[in-house]
Amino acid sequence: MNKKKLSHSNLNNSITSVLAALLCIVIGMAVGFLVLLAINPAHAWGDGFVRILKGGFHDAPYGVGKELANAAPLIMTGLSVAFAFKTGLFNIGAAGQYTLGAYGALYCAIMLKMPWYVCLIVATILGGIWGAIPGFFKAYFNINEVITSIMFNWIGLYLVNELIYQNGTGPMYDVRNTRTLNLGKNAELSKALIPDFGLNKMFQTNSTTIAIFLAAAVAILIWVILNKTTFGYELKAVGLNKSAARYAGINEKKNIILSMAIAGALAGFGAGLYYLSNVSQWNPLNSTSLPTMGFNGISVALLASSNPIGTIFSAIFISHISVGGSFLSTKYYPTEISDLISGIIIYLCAFSMLFRGKIHSMLFKNADKTNVNAEPAPAKTETKKEGK
């Protein structure tokens, strides 16, 4: 009976979380439409809001392929932040870990001419190392991981820029287009590209690969680790209460470092998926600001309530409105409108607990009362009087 009640409660919580996320999306889109009206009311609907709603479908199939290519790394950076959240840590260093992962993937592809799967492994390892450093300071010196991970974002960015650029003479740097060498235009480097299995032909792109399926598979794997394994239970236990975990015999220092290392590895893997799909090349001259993928991962994690499976859908949604924003006519609107909508949704996600509480009270209050009243009364035990 208790298991049945627990399962019913978990289902109710899942429904309220989804509805709360949808409410955040609806409010964010409504505010975005009001902004479009304020900027240019004559074109707010057809040339503005409708294009954002359509997303990649505005220019299908190319736009849809672009959505999928951008969603893959978003899933991974969202998982990076969500995994840390689940273990009681705030990984705001996903951008730096993503940057180191990008360098690892591109170095192995361009310099070592390794196949794509080896490049992905190296990207994952470098991201994991960059994530483990803030975890080490948190575990042994109790330094807040937010501070150290922010600092390592910038250290990683300028370190990678210097390693690639090297005053314009770096072997990975193409002076003609001020970026790293293009993997898709060099036959010798083409084996570093993630295979597409006909997806590029289907979507009429050159960057839609199986990366989206790899990212979804990792999301499912992370869900299994967190919810179905002893290792995942230990990580969450340390996040909830380090002292209690230590009392239970769990090595809290090791688990803190492992949590941040895994979070960093996920971000690094995402960078490998992005650059080895030939979506873009790294530009050390213009990369003076941190990659937006790392910070967009925060919005993905918040919108998904840190659920690994939910990150798949929230990443696709963020990619959808971002691509839709890129199709806005610059004659009437700035393309950053989609970023504004994402920002509003992120802000509203901070109130998701309040939304979930209100939705739960509206939908399941009577059901909870019914369940309580339906519980059978405990059986009375009869006692026999002993005769003398």
UniProtKB/TrEMBL annotation:
Parts of the chain that traverse the membrane: 68-93, 114-133, 139-160, 208-226, 256-276, 297-317, 337-355
Keywords: Cell membrane, Membrane, Transmembrane, Transmembrane helix
InterPro entries: ABC_transp_permease
Topology versus the membrane: Multi-pass membrane protein
Pfam families named in the record: BPD_transp_2
CDD domains in alphabetical order: TM_PBP1_transp_TpRbsC_like (cd06580)
One GO CC term on file: plasma membrane
Name of this protein: Nucleoside ABC transporter membrane protein
Source organism: Faecalibacterium prausnitzii L2-6
